[in-house]
């Protein structure tokens, strides 16, 4: 919103009509600031001025709806100011309305050093309040042929316009969350440096005392920029083209770069970044097409939420994959070992189908529904070349499976040594595999928290899977028709209890490992 008009004291030059009241000067300042806007404003500051025109100010004599826009002098990297040329209804007079960076307007008005110093004081007065500042000037022209550049006009400085663009309350918390997650936030803005530093302090950026301007950036070599950018978090008075250089410098330092942008000129930097994020609300079509992601609500906190969701999805995929590797080791082992050593077969096709009816929903529903780890946003990002499964994770998953296989083999061989029939051995072995399967689901819900902790975290999908599995297991063990179908035998209840205990003990070692590894990581 338009927060204030600042007439810049004695530097406001009065025309021959003798306007000298602050109100009249501010009205003229607002008039030419509005005339300097684009026809279809894209910049939020221009939109704020258009809203001013559509309000009470628009019903005054200062808005000239009958003037005709002849041409525009666009913003350029060499001159951060733009001008609109308007022609009067009689076609004899031209009014040039200019707005832009205050230092660019001062250059167009040919300020001497004394006036520049005074203007700097006024700019700092507004910028210290966190306002975004534009300078406004006007010029008159009577010739039919317009000059090629804005410097060819004789401008009169009108004053400064301050815009309040309040930081959303959630942004500071989001920045803190990024910092704890190992994500460094860098602000690149076209605003005045003092304004940028004020906003940086509001949102909690580090090293806000280090502010690099676009002019300083142009004077740096690529090596100097790569070194400065390791700690710099604020770039002010930066033009869109300089974003590409900043992105490339970060990538050259080995960083994974996510960049937000909304304009056509942001497209090269959005394309170059590892993750380009376009503003869906106010972004241009070119910016959206150049990006990897489109932010629908133009809210920085949504990016942080996306990071949290992405880490949760990645974690859950790893857990599901670990479970798949581990559970298929005992299944494959108990299918092959009896064949290799001419021992009684325990797993028939119907048993494999039963187990897969547990495994499939566990992978696709249970782990997908798992909530994020408590430390998901308190750990550094993974390396960009890190795959879904590391050698360590694969080794731990296979070790889980081999421990379960060893426990199942122990139950299997013990039952045979006690003289149980083949059907009874199959019953005890299968029961142990099913219980161990459920325990593997429980222990793999988290690789950082113990089973007792994760049990306090609800997972409705897991409850349905467990309830269905235990119910079906009871049915096939105690209903004669189903028991015969599965080639099971009747065994004492205490042996079932031993199978349950053995299945639970098969994952105890991994729970101890999680406790040990978590305690080892905490001091660091």
What would your notes on this structure say?
The protein is α/β, with parallel strands linked by helices and 524 residues long. It is built from 20 helices and twelve strands. It has a six-stranded antiparallel sheet, with helices on both faces. The protein has a three-stranded parallel sheet with strand order 7-9-8. Strand 3 (81-87) and strand 4 form a beta hairpin. The model is unreliable at 7-19 (pLDDT under 50).
Tags for this model:
12% strand; 6-stranded antiparallel sheet; 524 residues; 12 strands; alpha/beta; 3-stranded parallel sheet
Task: Note the overall shape.
Answer: elongated
Please bin the fraction of helical residues: 40-55%
Main beta sheet: 6 strands, antiparallel
How do the strands line up in the largest sheet?
1-6-5-4-3-2
Treating each run of at least 4 consecutive H or I residues as one helix, how many helices? Answer: 20
- Give the termini separation: 47 Å
Strand content: 5-15%
Low-confidence stretches: 7-19
Task: Tell how many strands the DSSP assignment holds.
Answer: 12
**Taking Cα atoms only, what radius of gyration do you get, to the nearest Å?**
35 Å
Mean pLDDT: 85
Helix/strand/pairing category = alpha/beta
């Amino acid at each position: 919103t338009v927060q204030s008009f600042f007439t810049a004291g004695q530097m406001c030059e009065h025309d021959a009509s003798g306007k000298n009241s602050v109100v009249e000067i501010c009205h003229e300042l607002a008039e030419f600031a509005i005339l300097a806007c684009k026809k279809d404003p894209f910049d939020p500051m221009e939109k704020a001025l258009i809203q001013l025109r559509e309000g009470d100010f628009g019903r005054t004599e200062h808005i000239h709806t009958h003037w005709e826009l002849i041409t525009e002098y666009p913003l350029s990297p060499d001159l951060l100011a733009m001008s609109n040329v308007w022609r009067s209804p009689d076609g004899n007079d031209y009014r040039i309305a200019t707005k832009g960076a205050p230092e660019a307007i001062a250059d167009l008005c040919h300020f001497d050093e004394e006036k520049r110093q005074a203007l700097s004081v006024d700019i700092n007065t507004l910028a210290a309040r966190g306002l975004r500042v534009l300078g406004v000037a006007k010029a008159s022209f009577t010739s039919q042929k317009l000059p090629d550049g804005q410097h060819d006009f004789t401008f009169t400085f009108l004053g400064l316009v301050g815009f309040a663009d309040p930081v959303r309350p959630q942004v500071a918390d989001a920045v803190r969350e990024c910092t704890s997650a190992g994500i460094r936030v860098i602000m690149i803005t076209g605003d005045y440096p003092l304004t940028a530093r004020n906003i940086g302090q509001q949102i909690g950026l580090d090293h806000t005392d280090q502010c690099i301007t676009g002019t300083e950036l142009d004077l740096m070599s690529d090596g100097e920029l790569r070194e400065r950018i390791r700690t710099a978090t604020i770039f002010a008075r930066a033009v869109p083209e300089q974003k590409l250089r900043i992105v490339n410098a970060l990538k050259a330092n080995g960083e994974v770069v996510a960049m937000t942008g909304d304009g056509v000129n942001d497209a090269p930097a959005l394309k170059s970044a590892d993750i380009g994020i376009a503003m869906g609300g106010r972004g241009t079509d070119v910016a959206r097409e150049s990006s990897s992601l489109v932010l629908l609500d133009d809210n920085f906190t949504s990016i942080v939420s996306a990071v949290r969701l992405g880490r949760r999805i990645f974690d859950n995929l790893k857990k599901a994959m670990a479970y798949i590797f581990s559970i298929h080791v005992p299944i494959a082992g108990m299918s092959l070992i009896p064949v290799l050593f001419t021992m009684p077969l325990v797993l028939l096709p119907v048993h494999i189908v039963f187990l897969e009816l547990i495994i499939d929903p566990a992978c696709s529903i249970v782990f997908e529904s798992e909530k994020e780890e408590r430390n998901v946003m308190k750990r550094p990002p993974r390396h960009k070349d890190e795959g879904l499964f590391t050698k360590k994770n694969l080794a731990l998953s296979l070790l889980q499976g081999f421990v379960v296989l060893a426990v199942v083999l122990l139950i299997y061989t013990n039952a045979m040594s006690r003289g149980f029939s083949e059907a009874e051995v199959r019953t005890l072995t299968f029961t142990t595999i099913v219980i161990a399967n459920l325990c593997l689901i429980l222990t793999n819900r988290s690789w950082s928290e113990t089973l007792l902790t994760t049990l306090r975290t609800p997972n409705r999908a897991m409850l349905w899977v467990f309830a269905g599995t235990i119910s079906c297991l009871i049915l096939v063990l105690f209903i004669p028709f189903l028991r015969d179908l599965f080639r099971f035998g009747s065994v004492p209840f205490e042996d079932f209890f031993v199978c349950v205990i053995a299945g639970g003990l098969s994952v105890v070692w991994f729970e101890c490992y999680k406790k040990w590894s978590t305690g080892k990581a905490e001091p660091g």
